[in-house]
Specification:
single chain, alpha+beta, Helix Hairpins, HSP40/DNAj peptide-binding domain, 3 domains, four-stranded mixed beta sheet, three-stranded mixed beta sheet, 9 helices, 23% strand
């Protein structure tokens, strides 16, 4: 019968604490679990040996007996004894099911279709005669899924929804006001199935807000350019400014220069965490110069230019 080095299997020292053994087991169990490695026979065998090692080293009585056995076995080897000639009989378990079956186990036979613990384990620790062979259950949350979704700036401002199909189920997902490119909307429990009784994963909608022909978004603020005719810029007046909630009138002071920016409070994007509040809209003036002039208009501009020159020369 082959001796099993459970410490080596878990990759821990013989002086390892219970916590260190548990941490090593969890790491390896997640790596080699059959749900993570479907159809991989080598991973299945590795998973069996990991569970077997943990079953022994996590139980104080089993670990004590195993350490005594190991000391005797390695002493036999050091004295030149043939490992195959070691007397195992003194270590045979006299009880079927020593240590009992813990309530947090699942049946290895159910998981793998037979062949749970090794002959070494069953001979030394019990399990001969049809005892159910067990492996510690690994509870793990299911995999999270991501689904990209593109929405318009208008939808980002007022909020919207999307209808998705997951495993034949139609899911209506509400997208709150204020989302931006890179925002993720979580749909709990609609990801991959859990492992070992763990909860299902989540579905995340990864939002992209499409470019807008008028507005540029910077955080929760919006920016845009508004053309203002030369006459209004010089003499002052009002002009229409677009917002995502309709047009508003903006007062243009006398002598407004091109590139001047006006701030319209509360005309931006709602705050994601507080939709009652909103960012601002920044409007930059772009002076619109007339391309075609009538004779009279040209004469007036020439007269104006002359007056301006005289003023500069004075």
């Amino acid at each position: 019968m082959e001796y099993k080095d459970y410490y080596k299997i878990l990759g821990v020292e013989k002086r390892a604490s219970v916590r260190e053994i548990k941490q090593a087991y969890r790491k390896l169990a997640r790596q080699y679990h059959p749900d993570v490695n479907p159809g991989n026979k080598k991973a299945e065998e590795k998973f069996k040996t990991i569970n077997e090692a943990y079953e022994v080293l996590s139980d104080p009585e089993k670990r004590r007996k195993y350490d005594q056995l190991g000391t005797s076995y390695f002493s036999w080897q050091q004295q030149g004894g043939d490992p195959h000639g070691f007397d195992w009989s003194q270590w045979f378990s006299g009880q079927s099911g020593e240590g009992g079956v813990r309530v947090d186990y699942s049946d290895l036979d159910d998981l793998f279709g037979g062949g749970g613990f090794s002959d070494f384990f069953q001979t030394i620790f019990g399990g001969v005669g049809g005892q159910r062979r067990s492996a510690r259950r690994v509870s793990r949350k299911g995999r999270d899924y991501e689904q990209p979704v593109e929405i318009s700036l208008e939808e980002a401002v007022r909020g919207t929804q999307r209808v998705l199909s997951a495993d034949g189920e139609r899911i209506t997902v509400k997208i709150p006001p204020g989302v931006k490119t890179g925002s993720k909307v979580r749909v709990a429990g609609k990801g991959g199935g859990g492992m070992g009784g763990g909860p299902a994963g989540d579905l995340y909608l990864k939002v992209t807000v499409s470019r807008h022909p008028v507005f540029e978004r910077k955080g929760d603020d919006l920016h845009c350019e508004v053309p203002v005719d030369l006459y209004t810029a010089v003499l002052g007046g009002e002009t229409d400014v677009p917002t995502l909630n309709g047009k508003v009138r903006l007062k243009i002071p006398v002598g407004t220069q091109g590139g001047r920016t006006f701030r319209l409070r509360g005309k931006g994007v709602p705050y994601l965490r507080n939709p009652a509040g909103r960012g601002d809209l920044y409007v930059t003036v772009k002076i619109s110069v007339p391309k075609r002039l009538s004779r009279k208009e040209r004469a007036l501009f020439e007269e104006l230019a002359g007056l301006h020159q005289k003023r500069r020369d004075a």
